[in-house]
Amino acid sequence: MKIGQVAQQAGVGVDTVRCYxxxxxxxxxxxxxxxxxxFTAADxxxxxxxxxxxxxxxxxxxxIALLNAVDAGTARCASERVRFExxxxxxxxxxxxxxxxxxxLSRTLQQCExxxxxxxxxxxxxxxxxxx
Length: 132
What we know:
Elements: H1 3-10, H2 14-23, E1 30-31, E2 37-38, H3 41-55, H4 60-72, H5 77-113
Antiparallel strand pairs: 1-2
Helix pairs in contact: 1-2, 1-3
């Protein structure tokens, strides 16, 4: 199938398919006699796998490293566990930061309700016109 069909089936843009191929997340597609890339259903599945890992927070570099290990036949749960543990630690850190942001926002909202809003700086006092 052509690149546009692969992109459509995988729910990505044509440029994404080209990027994945260029970066090594996707094997170089064979070419037809007329020069078009010829992709397979397995290529669509691989793109979907990459996108699934990206939704878990993995970077494309991390995914490519994992795919290289899979392609080489060296990927094992024990060897890849470190990669997934590192990603989990990153997500946990993001959650801690988000909880902190939530607490600060909640405090600010409470201050606004109490009439002591700290969001806006106090307006500078301007002299009133007509009084000297």
